[in-house]
Design brief:
It contains 2 helices and 11 strands. By secondary structure, the protein is mainly β.
Amino acid sequence: MEFAQKEIEYPQEVSSLLLPMQSLPLLLPNVAVAEIVTGNVTPNPRTPEWHLGSLSWRSVTIPVISFEGLNNQPVEGDMLRVPMAVINSFLGEDALPFYAIRITGIPRLVRVASADLEIDAGKTLAAERVRVNIGENKAAIPDLDFIERKMLDKEGSD
């Protein structure tokens, strides 16, 4: 018995968010971001500098990270009333269903079509999958797999 191969239809545009960071904004699809929140981070001195601490979110304690810190860049600012993007876990691990990335302002909604997206062949940092140009905007697409594995390794080492 032969089965007809079903052709996969990909969306023409992807609703995405440009998350403002200290330098280059991050570009993520809307579905990756659970919520944008502002809150106080509870620091943990036993964790690496990039792991800023934890946040109580929807009755769950989630880790908060600095994307810049993961890239061995300076982590600036205090931890009072910090804006954060709560991210849905990419790996689907029970130990890490959500985490937050510290951002520097209000994200901007963008609709990204493949025709509008240009890969920037320049150097990427450790936690970046690729850098892109979207019209006049430059952004980095984070390597969520790398980020989550670093957090799981950190969690397992405490």
